[in-house]
């Protein structure tokens, strides 16, 4: 379980984009959290989905609700599916670790994507979150429940996940101008996700 496995994530999702899209639940077990996030947004505001996958179900939830969705993912095959499904939204092939869109958003999401980064890359992401967050923007991401690396499998290949300690996330959020609104670990309603919902203070 080494950080070198993280370098294979982009290729893994590109190779298995069809499988991921086919297996991704559309039942929205995360609906309650999406609604909590949405409650912090202005009506019709802008949402940046970081690691948007194939656009369903999360980006689609916001697109259908009338938000201006901008999705980014490192997999061209995933982004191709997004563009076909939601041609009125904006989609870019991009690595979140070097994201620099030159604009800010009312809400930023990194659901089941941010936790594929190494812990050092996760620390660096908070400056990227800050740079893309409008005043009072909402930020929601999923992590692990404690510091460490965990390996899963997908498409018969190793799948890397890592997490910082909760206190580290709290410190990084505070240092970058975000206040924690809600936080839960191993949430049974979402299949065991650990979720952070924050809001930019300025």
UniProtKB/TrEMBL annotation:
Residues 47-135 form the Methyltransferase domain. GO terms for molecular function: methyltransferase activity. The keyword Cell membrane does not apply. It comes from Hyphomicrobium denitrificans (strain ATCC 51888 / DSM 1869 / NCIMB 11706 / TK 0415). InterPro entries: Methyltransf_25, SAM-dependent_MTases_sf. This is Methyltransferase type 12. GO terms for biological process: methylation. Keywords: Methyltransferase, Transferase.
């Amino acid at each position: 379980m080494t950080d070198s496995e993280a370098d294979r994530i982009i290729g893994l999702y590109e190779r298995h984009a069809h499988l991921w899209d086919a297996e991704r639940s559309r039942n929205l077990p995360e609906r309650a959290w999406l609604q909590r996030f949405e409650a912090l947004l202005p009506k019709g505001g802008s949402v940046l989905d970081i690691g948007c996958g194939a656009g369903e179900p999360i980006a689609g939830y916001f697109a259908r609700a009338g938000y201006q969705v901008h999705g980014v993912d490192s997999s061209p095959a995933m982004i191709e599916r997004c563009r076909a499904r939601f041609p009125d939204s904006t989609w870019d092939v991009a690595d979140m670790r070097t994201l620099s869109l030159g604009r800010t958003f009312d809400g930023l999401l990194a659901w089941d994507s941010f936790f594929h980064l190494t812990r050092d890359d996760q620390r660096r992401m908070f400056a990227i979150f800050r740079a893309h967050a409008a005043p009072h923007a909402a930020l929601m991401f999923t992590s692990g429940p404690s510091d460490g690396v965990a390996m899963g499998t997908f498409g018969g290949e190793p799948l890397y996940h890592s997490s910082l300690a909760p206190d580290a996330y709290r410190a990084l959020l505070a240092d970058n101008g975000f206040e924690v609104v809600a936080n839960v670990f191993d949430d049974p309603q979402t299949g065991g996700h650990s979720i952070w919902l924050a809001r930019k203070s300025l």
